[in-house]
Specification:
The chain is α+β, with helices and mostly antiparallel strands. It is 28% helix and 25% strand. Helix 8 runs parallel beside helix 10 and helix 12 (514-533) packs antiparallel against helix 13 (537-557). Bound molecules: beta-D-glucopyranose and 1-deoxynojirimycin (NOJ).
């Protein structure tokens, strides 16, 4: 069942009922000011950091779900309704939510009145703008009232749930015409306040939630709205809000627009007050911001800027195939999600609280793979930020804080895959841009400038950390965990409340990871290539020799007969082997070893992938392991803490499905690669939204596996490495346009019925117009490449020529 449809021409997903299975959200903002906004206008807003600088309040786990947002109540006679349906839930005559790229538009109709709210965060400004348009579609004059509503939370969002004995006495407000200022805690150490404004004369306001709602009521039935008159309340402590009342007359057919601006303002210390004695805040910067959106023309201009920005970004990879679902995912939604993961990492979603994890080391490195072609300059900056949290021995803080960019010592280090992801991200950046100067950038260890060394040295330390931390089988030690945060082989946690990620020793001398071994083969080679670029042939040769050793170790002790072993535990027992009672086969080493090329020439790759198909496949995607752990295994940790079928315990972890799909392309099986691609691809499962339940335009982290009662149901949408890896898979391996150090390689691996396709790929500033013909419907193989009329001989890499603007490439598969 569907709850909407894709409007490809406008790059929008159109939701046609407010009653989606779960809130279906969008992200507004591209730089520093962000809003999460759901299809019923729920959500919240923050500046830079959803924990420390959250403007509006949001309650997770609320009942009914998704209460709290930027609402407009419309009182038309005795009927009170909202254009986004919540919070009154008054049935609408019609409803539509259009989630676009960086904006959302909500349109509700009731009793001949149409209300449309268009919300977005303008480029380079710290505010969210909403244009509210009311249209009288009836034959009679209408006299209606509009009440806006936001609830403030501009204090530490953690304290909002813990330290209310203090916060309930702190709230302070100022009101100036139609503009409401939230200045709680500004009297002391804050240099910032928030503002909510409307560009029209108001008929009243409220800033005290208790006055607005009335006792024992909720946002579903505010007393002020029911009575039809604001009380001009000034909040003093308790819960400050902003509500503006507009009384509006509309002739038949008449339309009126109002512009609401929700903004964040910072003042330098010496310009903090307009009147320090009276504690009146300096509103100059707020006035300037509001003036930028004084009229509908201003708003439309800002929206056009935003749309142009996105059109430019997305133009860097555009495909035109016969498969409209592939086109819409590649051209719009997958790249969009990659940008959102760049901005949010794993901090703020409807499943991540915004107050927990900061930026993950491995997460951020992998996210890079999905957006490096879009915003290479910001990718460069991100790489240096990440590398600066590495330790001198090559290990790394597992997370760092977005505001301070410092490593997070609560979680510390010891996740032994982390160092290699830095090589992955840097290599992707250099391949994309050709900018080897990044390798010379003096980059601190542990954020200590006195310990700065060229980035290339960081990569060497990454490489050496793995090469020198091996266990009894010459495989890499796993530490606290590798990519699978829940495979905690050194943890041995027996008491609730202990964190699986930090409890126990950070490293045992025995537990080893075959997955990291596969990574080492892949990124060890990429490291060697970077060494060559730097002219260091000796280091490249040394690296390749280490890679050879690792390859041999995988074949010797990492192969189980029909598939790759997952790990060795702290007793040197196999994990992910036919010898195990449960958890006999894991997805990660099958995908990663094969995509790294391990076992291809020995014929093991094909066997491993056949085992994946036989043992892990479901119609909703490939499960992470089988059989599921049915009881808690002290020696395995969190993986066995989840009930069978969920998360890392035999869920369909969408993140590593593309690894298997890529692995299939490595051995040339385009049909199977594409089959796997489709199973978790949002556009393909839109039709089963009642089962899948999360947004049909973005990937989720996890879909419940075959052992779960709700097999097929997804959780944790938006912020997942799945976005980057699925984009890498479809763009670089299936459609086959892969950036190398010397040029763009074109080597598609498609299903036999995929047909011809064209694409445009901007690479190092040159637009490659690629046309792929597949006359015999082969899955892989290129028989001819013609570049600007000249046939390319002996290679599928189109050499990069900086002086060209456009290059025409004809590719014949066969
Ligand atoms: C989740 C993992 C996640 C980890 C982060 C675990 O509970 O299952 O997916 O990576 O928490 O700390
Ligand atoms: C989510 C985490 O963000 C990521 O770092 C990890 O690799 C996966 N879960 C698997 O555990």
């Amino acid at each position: 069942m569907k709850f909407g449809y894709f409007d490809d021409a406008n790059k929008e997903y159109v939701i046609t009922t407010p009653k989606t299975p779960l809130p279906w959200i969008n992200y507004l903002g591209c730089n520093e000011f962000f809003s999460l906004i759901s299809n019923t206008q729920g959500g919240y807003t923050f500046y830079k950091d959803a924990k420390l600088l959250r403007l509006t309040r949001y309650r997770y786990n609320n009942v009914p779900t998704d209460m709290g947002g930027k609402y407009f109540y419309i009182k038309d006679g005795e009927t009170v309704w909202n254009p986004g349906w919540q919070p009154t839930q008054t049935e609408l005559d019609s409803y539509e939510c259009r989630h676009g790229i960086g904006y959302s538009r909500f349109t509700g109709k009731k009793n001949g009145l149409k209300a449309s709210a268009l919300a977005f965060v303008p480029m380079n400004d710290n505010c969210e703008v909403t244009q509210l348009t009311l249209t009288n579609e009836s034959n009679e004059a209408k006299s209606v009232k509009v009440f806006s509503y936001v609830e403030w939370c501009l204090w530490n969002a953690d304290d909002d749930m813990k330290n209310f004995q203090r916060l309930l006495s702190c709230g302070e407000m100022e009101v100036e015409g139609g503009t409401i200022y939230h200045k709680t805690e500004y009297r002391e150490r804050r240099n910032h306040y928030a503002v909510y404004s409307v560009n029209a004369p108001i008929a009243g306001f409220d800033t005290s939630r208790d006055e607005f709602l009335g006792a024992y009521r909720s946002a579903a039935n505010p007393e002020v709205v029911e009575k039809g008159q604001c009380t001009n309340s000034m909040a003093s402590g308790w819960s400050p809000i902003a509500c503006q009342q507009l009384n509006i007359e509309l002739a038949p057919g008449e339309s009126k627009d109002f512009v609401f601006v929700l903004g964040y303002v910072e003042n330098p210390q010496d310009e903090k007050w307009e009147d320090a004695a009276m504690q009146v805040i300096n509103k100059k910067r707020a006035h300037e911001m509001l003036a930028r959106y004084a009229t509908v023309a201003d708003v439309q201009k800002a929206l056009t800027n935003l749309k142009e920005y996105w059109a430019e970004l997305l133009s860097k990879y555009q495909v035109n195939s016969k498969d409209e679902k592939v086109n819409r995912m590649v051209n719009v939604w997958n790249q969009y999600q990659c940008m959102v993961t760049f901005n949010m990492s794993r901090s703020a979603s409807y499943y991540e609280s915004g107050i927990g994890r900061g930026m993950g080391f491995r997460d951020s490195c992998q996210d890079l793979l999905g957006f490096v072609h879009l915003i290479p300059d910001r990718a460069r900056e991100r790489i240096i930020d990440i590398a600066s949290t590495q330790f001198e021995d090559g290990s790394a803080y597992h997370q760092y804080q977005p505001l301070t960019k410092k490593g997070n010592s609560d979680i510390g280090s010891g996740f032994n895959d982390d160092p290699l992801w830095l090589i992955a991200g840097t290599s992707a950046y250099v391949r994309e841009t050709g900018d080897t100067s990044i390798l010379d950038v003096m980059t601190p260890f542990d954020n200590d400038a006195s310990k700065a060394t060229p980035l290339m040295n960081h990569l060497k330390r990454s490489f050496d950390y793995i090469a020198t931390h091996k266990g009894p089988h010459d495989l890499p030690l796993i530490g606290r965990a590798d990519w699978n945060d829940c495979l905690n082989l050194n943890c041995f946690s027996e008491h609730p409340g202990e964190s699986f990620q930090t409890f126990g020793p950070s490293e045992g001398p025995v537990a080893e990871s075959v997955f990291i071994a596969g990574m080492f083969v892949k990124y060890g080679e990429e490291y060697a290539q970077l060494c060559e670029l730097k002219g260091d042939a000796a280091e490249a040769a040394r690296a390749r020799a280490e890679v050879e050793k690792m390859y041999a170790a995988i074949l010797k002790d990492g192969w189980d007969g029909e598939w790759f072993v997952r790990a060795y535990d702290a007793f040197s027992h196999k994990v992910g082997s036919k010898e195990c009672e449960e958890g006999q086969i894991f997805i990660e080493p099958q995908g990663f070893c094969v995509l790294a090329g391990v076992g291809v020439k020995e014929g093991l790759a094909e066997k491993a992938l056949n085992s994946v198909k036989e043992k892990l496949d479901t119609k909703y995607g490939v499960m992470i392991l089988q059989p599921a752990y049915t009881k808690y295994h002290l020696e395995l940790g969190e993986v066995s803490s989840y009930p069978p079928g969920y998360k890392e315990n035999a869920g369909i972890f969408c993140h590593n499905n593309p690894w298997v799909s890529i692995a299939e392309t490595v051995i040339g099986r385009g049909d199977r690669a594409f089959e796997i691609y489709k199973k978790t691809c949002p556009a393909y499962i839109e039709d089963i939204s009642e089962i899948h339940r999360t947004e049909p335009y973005v990937y989720s982290q996890m879909v419940a596996g075959a052992d779960a009662p709700r097999h097929g149901e997804a959780k944790n949408s938006w912020l997942t490495g799945t976005a980057a890896w699925t984009f890498v898979n479809v763009s670089q391996y299936i459609l086959g346009v892969y950036p190398t150090h010397t040029g763009l390689q074109v080597n598609p691996c498609v299903p036999s019925g995929f047909g011809d396709f064209d694409l445009v790929r901007t690479y190092r500033g040159v637009n490659y117009h690629v046309s792929v013909k597949n006359p015999n419907g082969v899955q892989k193989g290129v028989s001819k490449i013609i570049v600007d009329g000249k046939e390319l001989v002996g290679t599928s890499i189109i050499p990069y020529e900086a002086d060209k603007k456009d290059v025409n490439v004809e590719v014949v598969m066969g």
